[in-house]
Amino acid sequence: MRVAALDFGSNTFLLLIADLKKTATGWALEKVICDEVTLTRLSEGVDKTKMLSAEALSRSEDCFKKYSQLIAQHNPEKVIAVTTSATRDATNKKDFFNLCDKYNIPIHLASGDLEAELTFSGATFDKLEKNNCAVIDIGGGSTEFIFNGKEFFAKSLDVGSVRLTERFLHKDIISDQQIKATQSYVFSELQNYYVNAQFQINSLIAVAGTPTTLSCVHQSINFMQEKVHGSVLTKYQIEELRDKLAAMPLQERIKVKGLEPKRADVIVAGCCIMLAHLDFFNVSEISVSTYGVRYGVALGWEKF
User: What torsion, rounded to 10 degrees, do the Cα atoms 76, 82, 86, 88 define?
Assistant: First the structure.
């Protein structure tokens, strides 16, 4: 069974084309045909205007052209695309859906809760032990937290790297005061939402561009899946990276090895979101996963 699974996030568009095999417990990954990542910054300005900008829609269309060609080339039996926070918030989301129709991409507007479930199944499909495991997915517009304990808990909060950069961190060199304000805001949102919640977390996994980028920067490497997937970042290491990157002018930051230039302006906000979660859930380190929603969509294709 060949599936194309697309994740149109607030900052990044991802395409996974993979062959699956049927097992006694469901579908399993047999072979990855291609796994593409494109930074489109769909959520640019949405927090303020509640609209997808013409520039963001143009970047999206450029990506659709490329992805539709790859889909046609590899001829999957099923094509599924999901979109999330930025599109949920936009009053002109129909313009985005019309583009999907133009390029024959079947689109599903996922709720925050569904996005969280897809993230967990994708991030942990290669894990044998999933009990008391938590996953965070730091997007451009929102962050999902998923916990698999006595009960399955999955929620989405509107704290994303693009959204918080536009609110708090829009200056070139980022001050300690700005960092504190950003991290305190995320922590307070977690307090407000998870009041009286109890999570005994044995392992915490982070997916999406923020953790994979920080792993690359920490190792001083360009992206290599075999070195990034499963790598571990401690709270202290993330704090060091946050402070180092915040002190750099943007034009210097974009030259840092391992840091995708188009992600350079939002990476400090991503650090703040990660650290606020580590503080709130009293966890000292986090494992990095290169998987996420697109893998959850592919493995759960029968739900769509």
Answer: 140
Query: Measured between alpha carbons, how far is 228 from 177 in angstroms, rounded to an integer?
Result: 31
The DSSP string of 111-128 is: -HHHHHHHHHHHHTTT-S
Give the pLDDT confidence of 6-52 residue by residue, as tens digits: 999 888 899 999 999 988 888 889 999 999 999 898 888 887 888 99
Q: Is residue 118 part of a domain?
A: no
Looking at the domain assignment, is residue 82 inside a domain? yes
Domain co-membership, 31 together with 166? no
Amino acid at 139: G
Give backbone dihedrals phi and psi of 79, rounded to 5 degrees, phi first.
Answer: -120, 125
Task: Give yes or no: residues 141 and 268 share one domain.
Answer: yes
pLDDT (tens digit per residue) in 126-139: 776 778 899 999 98
Instruction: Determine the structural domain holding residue 10 and report its residue range.
Output: 2-113+293-303
The Cα 12–Cα 210 span in angstroms is 11
Q: Is the dihedral of CA 198, 208, 81, 128 positive or negative?
A: negative
